[in-house]
Amino acid sequence: MNTVSTSLSTYIREAVCIALKEDIGDGDVTAQLCESKPVHASIISREAAILCGRHWVDETFRQLDASIKTHWSCNDGDQIENGQTVCVISGNAPEILSGERTALNFLQSLSGTATIANQYASKLDGTSTQLLDTRKTIPGLRQAQKYAVTCGGGKNHRMGLFDAYLIKENHISACGSISNAIAKAQSQHPELKVEVEVETIAQLDEAISCGADIALLDNFDLDDVSRAVKNADGKIKLEVSGGITLENIQNFAQRGIDYISVGALTKHLKAIDFSMLFE
Questions:
Q1: 58-89 per-position pLDDT tens digit
Q2: In terms of C-beta density within 10 A (0-12 exposed, 13-18 middle, 19 or more buried), how is residue 29 classed?
């Protein structure tokens, strides 16, 4: 089974607590109609996908009734098929019913993120380019979606505004220049990587001369990406972002860039269809 860090475990507990509170409130009035008896319930995928969200499902039922057991047939990151039973849940009927929607909401959303990430990452097979996510996440679900991206074969960009610099157009304007922004960043937090968004080859050259770690090529076409790779000559890592699709991502990777970041991995969420049925 996939292991998670202590910080992610804490986040999962808090996220599940909030989700259960908004769904159950002061009590599940419909589940209270049901007889308290032991049952088995199967979670079944209704389409092919990359599974993600086991920890959230487990935590949902743990918070409702610690005696509920989940028996998984696959791990996060595994390919699953239409009609596959991915988990069997054993426990008291009313508590399982109360957790059904919350558990499935997490599972379908995170599997959706992992699945689209896998589709993009697969396009990079045979290249040295890494797929990155962005901060364009559903509010409150950033850590969850970024975990899902890794399950799909992608890598995480910075988690937030605190763990790396990404100097963009408005930052450059507020600081006066790329040079000023980089110098301030290196002075204030020399331990953090400094990435600069550039819109022209001239700006890329300035970022290189000032010692930036990464240049984000914003909406560069393929010819400009090729020129950027030639100018960088290994002195700086290059990331491409903007206008990336499943149809064109290979073309950019073949130019020899280091990273491609895609907001659609977490922004354009298409949930995977799962259902839960009592046996």
A1: 999 999 999 999 999 999 999 999 999 999 99
A2: exposed
- Whether 14 sits among the annotated catalytic residues: the reply is no
Residue 3 pLDDT level (bands cut at 50, 70, 90)? confident
Residue 142 among the catalytic residues: no
- Separation of alpha carbons 102 and 64, rounded Å: 11
Which one of the listed residues 213, 218, 224, 273 is annotated catalytic? 218
List CB contacts of 229: < 8 A, sequence separation 6 or more.
238, 255, 256, 257
In which residue are the tokens 């290994």 written?
Answer: 234
CA distances from 184 to 43, 88, 114 (A): 52, 55, 37
Which stretches of 75-221 are DSSP H helices? 93-122, 142-151, 169-175, 178-188, 201-209
Decide if 218 is catalytic: yes
Question: Distance between CA atoms of 112 and 134, rounded to whole angstroms?
Answer: 16
Q: What percent of the chain has pLDDT over 90?
A: 96
The residues, ordered by sequence, that sit 6+ positions from 212 with a Cβ below 8 Å of its Cβ are 182, 194, 195, 196, 236
Residue 233's contacts (CB-CB under 8 Å, 6 or more residues apart) are none
Phi/psi for 79 (5° steps) reads -75, 130
Which of 195, 197, 239, 258 is flagged as catalytic? 197
Cα–Cα distance, 244 to 242 (Å, whole number)? 6
Whole-structure pTM over 0.85, yes or no? yes
For the beta carbon of residue 83, count every other beta carbon within 10 angstroms. Answer: 10
DSSP codes joined into one string, 249-276: HHHHHTTT-SEEE-THHHHS-----EEE
